[in-house]
Amino acid sequence: MEVRARAPGKIILSGEHAVVHGSAAVAASIDLYTEVSLKISTDSEGSDGLLKLHLKDLGLQFSWPTEKIKEALPGPCIPLPPPTCSLESMKSLASLVEDQNIPEANFGLATGVSTFLWLYTSVHGFKPATAVVTSSLPLGAGLGSSAAFCVAVSASLLALSDLVNLDQNKKGWQSFQENELELVNKWAFEGEKMIHGKPSGIDNTVSTFGNMIMFKSGQLTLIKPSMPLKMLITNTKVGRNTKALVASVSERTMRHPEAMASVFTAVDSISKELSTIVQSPAPDDLTVTENEDKLQELMEMNQGLLQSMGVSHTTIETVLRTTLKYKLASKLTVYFSRALESTRLKSTIDSLTNGSVLAGTIVDKVIAELESCGFQCLIAEIGGKGVEVSFSSSS
Ligand SMILES: Nc1ncnc2c1ncn2[C@@H]1O[C@H](COP(=O)(O)OP(=O)(O)OP(=O)(O)O)[C@@H](O)[C@H]1O
Ligand SMILES: C[C@@](O)(CCO)CC(=O)[O-]
Ligand SMILES: [Mg+2]
């Protein structure tokens, strides 16, 4: 039996970084996915005794004799509740990954590969298997690639375990039950901890459950936007590392605990107000405009607070200047530009619209201009489904 699992990336509309410190944040899934296909070798098939990981888009293949992994790790654990990877196991995994000689340009991948090894062995012990990963999400671009990776890996592992109860004969994509989604989410969170250091859990939660959510101290509240939303995302291609940024905010918080507490409280209020506005009925154009103006102001305030946290970047100014030149675009776009500006750099959401307003020439012009600056633009639907799996009987 072979399973495919796909998990979406995310955008954060408000509250990134502050959410790690207990503030509310608002996030939504986007229709860009990471997909993992997993096949575990059975005894009857005979096997080469290897655990293989193929990162297809990156053209990288890794394999480990399962006996070697067994020697390095302290034995299979009982996979409930999901275990946290100890420092000692992290070191052992790092040396297993180091042996694979990951090219220097892909150095950041080492943590992702270690995370795969940890999640795999924690659920399935030392059985030989092959996992193939593909993704349409740019890595390290603020779109939750690490969470989508952890969620898709966890979902594929659990789908082939007896910890969940899925219909393996069903054709096409299927969802998990609510309690099973919670389990996938807990496993993915353990993975995110290995990649992010101290994650809030918002990225894996939105990737698991999909939709738009408000997230605060580990608790999720579903948000139902009163209008369909579509985003233009600009990737400025400036490299960043979420783990380092999260750590830098924590350091600043230790230096200035009271001032930072006020910043986090302000972000909390912004996220709550934003979630109310996004859900409030907008029966006519005037109300839509008023709501958009308020959202824009909230985004500006959020951006100011992100600067106070020390997480902003000059490339985003170029994106803002460009979108501001287009009146319609700037009105609709600025606040969402700021949303991702907050994640600090690369992914900037430039438009929020009910689907049609920005379609056509203005969007085309903005995209052309942004791309002429060397940025990459993607249009994404937001608030779609979370993780899903699909079975196929392998030959
Ligand atoms: N498809 C993938 N295959 C292997 N590793 C991956 C994959 N996607 C993400 N990762 C791991 O996640 C790391 C990127 O995570 P990081 O949290 O820095 O960025 P992000 O998740 O894209 O952005 P953010 O967390 O700000 O939304 C990569 O360096 C790699 O270790
Ligand atoms: C920056 C951050 O708020 C979101 C990363 O996408 C970190 C986290 O919540 O774990
Ligand atoms: Mg991440």
Automatic annotation (TrEMBL):
It comes from the Eukaryota. The keyword Lipid metabolism applies. Its main location: cytoplasm. PROSITE patterns: GHMP_KINASES_ATP. It is an enzyme of class 2 (transferase). Pathway: Isoprenoid biosynthesis; isopentenyl diphosphate biosynthesis via mevalonate pathway; isopentenyl diphosphate from (R)-mevalonate: step 1/3. Its EC number is 2.7.1.36. Residues 125-210 form the GHMP kinase N-terminal domain. Keywords: ATP-binding, Cytoplasm, Kinase, Lipid biosynthesis, Lipid metabolism, Magnesium, Nucleotide-binding, Steroid biosynthesis, Steroid metabolism, Sterol biosynthesis, Sterol metabolism, Transferase. One of its GO terms (cellular component) is cytosol. SUPFAM superfamilies: GHMP Kinase, C-terminal domain, Ribosomal protein S5 domain 2-like. GO terms for biological process: isopentenyl diphosphate biosynthetic process, mevalonate pathway; sterol biosynthetic process. It catalyses: (R)-mevalonate + ATP = (R)-5-phosphomevalonate + ADP + H(+). One of its GO terms (molecular function) is ATP binding. The keyword Lipid biosynthesis applies. Pfam families: GHMP_kinases_N. Gene3D superfamilies: 3.30.230.10, GHMP kinase, C-terminal domain (3.30.70.890). It is found in: Cytoplasm. Belongs to the GHMP kinase family. Mevalonate kinase subfamily. This is Mevalonate kinase. It comes from Stephania yunnanensis.
